[in-house]
Amino acid sequence: MQTSRPFETGEPWSRPDLLAALRRLDDAGEAYLVAMPGDEFFEPQGSAWSPSMHLRHLAKSARPVARALRLPRLVLALRFGVHRGASATFAGLRERYLDRLAAGVDAGRFAPSERSPPADPGRGRDEVLAEWHAANRALETAAMCWREPALDRYRLPHPALGPLTLREMLAFTVYHTAHHLRRIAERRGAAADRGN
Q1: What is the number of structural domains in the chain?
Q2: What residues have CB less than 8 Å from 168, skipping those under 6 apart?
Q3: Which tens digit of pLDDT belongs to each residue from 117-169?
Q4: Does residue 124 form part of some domain?
Q5: pLDDT value, residue 189
Q6: Residue 81 Ramachandran class (φ > 0 left, ψ -120 to 50 alpha, else beta)
Q7: Which of the four, 65, 119, 136, 170, has the lowest number of CB atoms within 10 Å?
Q8: Contacts of 38 (CB under 8 A, 6+ apart)
Q9: Number of helices and strands (H, E) in the chain?
Q10: SS3 letters across the chain
């Protein structure tokens, strides 16, 4: 019997589908993470980031996209140029990102800063989740103002992938969110397997 991978996205491509996928990941991520003990949420997973750091990285990555989507179209065109033709596919974008990860690209300036664990881990987890939700809601609200053709015309710079159309940036955000939530779950599962 085949089971689906956690935090599956499919290959959403229209603005409504991309935003719905991001909302589903937000909901599924919260359901998964609130069930985790608060102290575990702040502990590194082996040599990797803690779940808290993953979420702070996702929020830090989504906020500038939301800000950029609120800029006038002329400003985007002048600063980042325009794209002619169709956007890349979701699968193609995913493969480019995975290739860059395999080549050793890191989070760079979007890495979360180091923080001491909070005195109240449960409350601290709620605050990090609220920060992540707020970044996702801001992105969703800003993206609602864009029509489908414009998503393929205007571009934004991505630190690892170069210029992306707005549609590609939204698709990247969906996949990037799923990727990090999946890493948390996989590393947690691997740790549990080692403990048995």
Answers
A1: 1
A2: 87, 88, 93
A3: 899 999 999 999 999 999 999 999 999 999 999 999 999 999 999 999 999 99
A4: yes
A5: 84
A6: left
A7: 119
A8: 120, 121, 122, 123, 124, 125
A9: 8, 2
A10: CCCCCCCCCCCCCCHHHHHHHHHHHHHHHHHHHHCCCHHHHCCCECCECCHHHHHHHHHHHHHHHHHHHCCCHHHHHHHHCECCCCCCCHHHHHHHHHHHHHCCCCCHHHCCCCCCCCCCHHHHHHHHHHHHHHHHHHHHHHHCCCCHHHHHHEEEEECCCEEEEHHHHHHHHHHHHHHHHHHHHHHHHHHHHHHC
Tokens of 114: 């180091």
User: 117 with 42: CB under 8 angstroms?
Assistant: yes
Confidence of residue 190 (pLDDT cuts 50, 70, 90): confident
C-alpha span between 159 and 46 (Å, rounded): 26
pLDDT digits (tens, 9 = 90+) for 36-88: 999 999 999 999 999 999 999 999 999 999 999 999 999 999 999 999 999 99
For residue 41, tell me if it sits in a domain.
Answer: no
Residue 4 within any structural domain of the chain: no
pTM greater than 0.70: yes
Q: Token match 């909302």: residue?
A: 23
Q: Is 162 helix (H, G, I), strand (E, B) or coil?
A: strand
CATH of the domain at 121: 1.20.120
Rounded to whole angstroms, the Cα distance separating 21 from 94 reads 15
- How many residues belong to the chain? 196
